[in-house]
Amino acid sequence: MFRSARLEALFGKRFDQVVFADVIALIGREEAAEAADLDYKERVHAKNDEQKVEFCKDVVAMANDRGGLLVIGMKEDGQRALPQEVTKVEVSDGELRRLYDVLLNVSPHPLRVDILAVEDPDDPGHGVLLVLVERSGLAPHALLDTRDKTHHRDGWLRFPIRNGAATRWMLEPEVATRYRDRFITGRSVHDRLNAVEIECVEAYAERDGSTLPDPPQEPHHGLGPRTPEYGFYRKEPARPNLVVTVVPETAGRLVINQAALQELRRAQAAEPVLIGLDRTFQQVGVAPGRLTAILGDPIIAVYSELHTDGSGSFLISLLREDQTGETIQVLVQELVWYLLSGLRHLGRHARDRTAAGGVTAIRLSLLADTDEVGDSGIDLPRRDPLREIQLTSNTSYGDYARLSPTHRAVGDVFAPLDDLATDGPGLISAAALVANEACHAFGLAEVPLLDTNGTINRHHWDGPLQAIITNWASW
To answer: Which of 2, 90, 142, 384 is the most buried (most CB within 10 A)?
Structure first.
């Protein structure tokens, strides 16, 4: 869902929490005047071709620009463009479906648009509609303008864009430039994904204090990563790592100052690192262009880097106890649990802390050791001879016994940012997609614990994690 700190400040709350009285409170306010990201319409009929084109023109123009909010059911002052009077429109489910269908039928590419009904409690079925339009990483979008068929029987393909508080058509050089920018952005997102992931792994390898001798470690039998509480440690064997990285196509912005640092400390003290497990980050700090969070000292169990543009990485050590042999076994249900937790952690930072939006690039990397990251050629210290990762399961071991071990498995997918930040089917679907792609490196076609349609397959989980995930997914 589209987020805007400026526009949400007008209502004093998130768009999905707006009530009818909040809309009435906009009337006459100078800061609520129409702008590039805000437009008012008395009503939208969108029933004949001309009306459909007008509605789509307004929506597509915002997607091609910076995104924005279209308020349907509000009349503005023609001179100052201030909201003047609530005119109220139908806000039934049927009307919302009709407007969604208009956008799908006219715009060549489906847009990230949410339409929220804000009903007048004194007039059921009527109120205003908030049309939330995200800036599109696939811009420029076009629409088929069927109003003028003088020179072509089907009309013309045209590219609208916001021009201050108005809308205009882009010229051909602008369209060509925007197409060029689309491909450059695609490459830059991939490059940014690589950089964010590598920087996180490098920082983790430098900070992890597992190199000095000290007393033997107590056995760890609980869920989650081990978090030694005392002193220096003997040099440990190589530990496989799971790294989750996200880069929003529409970057956000966070100013790092004392207030931002304190806000992160409060948030991380209240929100568990892992879904369903009461354990929070122990250290929160600042690094160039990012905030950091650490669980475990001196041996780091979880390390997170949260960048000012909404990008970020979440790294977790997968080895809970010493293992011998040529491979290191990793339980697939723990891998998925960590992945869901990391995606939610990073998604909430990007959406709620930096106001990033749109589609997000996601990468899941399973690394036998830190020096297996990317193709950067970086020289990271290795603790001992490298062992391969063997994916396994407590519920269907025979199926996993035939899988091939590997030093490195990577999955890359795209998903809407709001899906990552919100507990629900969207988060599960994104996790399933990226987990499936990463696990192809082991010879596993798909991870059976999650479905790409956004559901949990409970019978593939066992032990305490089955109860944790079942309880979490009971929204």
So the answer is: 2
The helix (run of H) or strand (run of E) holding residue 358 is strand 357-367
Give yes or no for residue 429 having a pLDDT over 90. Answer: yes
CA 198 from chain center: how many Å? 19
Q: Supply 455's token pair.
A: 């559901």
The pLDDT tens digits of the residues spanning 64-120 come to 888 899 999 999 988 889 999 999 999 999 999 999 988 886 655 668 899 999 999
CATH code for the domain in which residue 39 is found? 3.30.950
In angstroms, what CA-CA distances link 111 with 118, 265, 354? 22, 36, 22
Among residues 383, 368, 387, the alpha carbon closest in space to that of 235 is found at 383
The stretch 121-127 carries a mean pLDDT of 95
CA distance to 58, 110, 184, 320, 406, per residue, from 141 (Å)? 12, 9, 16, 49, 42
Spatial distance between the Cα atoms of 26 and 35, rounded to a whole number of angstroms: 14
Which structure tokens are listed for 399?
Answer: 């199926």
Task: Indicate the residue type of 405.
Answer: P
Same structural domain, 19 and 140: yes
Higher pLDDT, 310 or 212: 310
- Which whole number is the average pLDDT over 311-338? 85
Per-residue DSSP letters for 321-351?
Answer: S---SSEEEEEHHHHHHHHHHHHHHHHHIII
Please indicate, yes or no, whether residues 291 and 148 belong to a single structural domain of this protein.
no
Q: Residue 346 is part of which domain span? A: 194-215+227-472
Pairing mode, strands 113-119 and 126-133:
antiparallel
- Own/partner contacts of 143-151, CB < 8 Å, gap of 24 or more, are 143/53, 143/56, 143/57, 143/60, 143/106, 143/107, 143/108, 144/53, 144/106, 144/108, 145/53, 145/57, 146/49, 146/50, 146/53, 147/49, 147/50, 147/53
Whether the predicted model's global pTM rises above the 0.70 cut: no
* 431-464 per-position pLDDT tens digit: 999 999 999 999 999 999 999 999 999 999 998 9
pLDDT of residue 236: 54
Domain count across the chain: 2
Residues 189-246: pLDDT tens digits? 888 999 999 999 999 988 875 544 444 455 555 677 655 544 444 445 567 899 999 9
Residues 235 and 303 in one domain: yes
Domain end position, chosen among 170, 185, 207: 170
Q: Is residue 105 part of a domain?
A: yes
Residues 96 and 206 in one domain: no
* Residue 186 domain-assigned (yes or no): no
Q: Report in angstroms the alpha-carbon separations of 44 from 116, 164, 404, 437.
A: 15, 21, 58, 43
The verdict on 267 and 162 lying in the same domain is no
Based on the fold, state whether residues 59 and 207 are members of the same structural domain. Answer: no
Q: Is residue 435 part of a domain?
A: yes
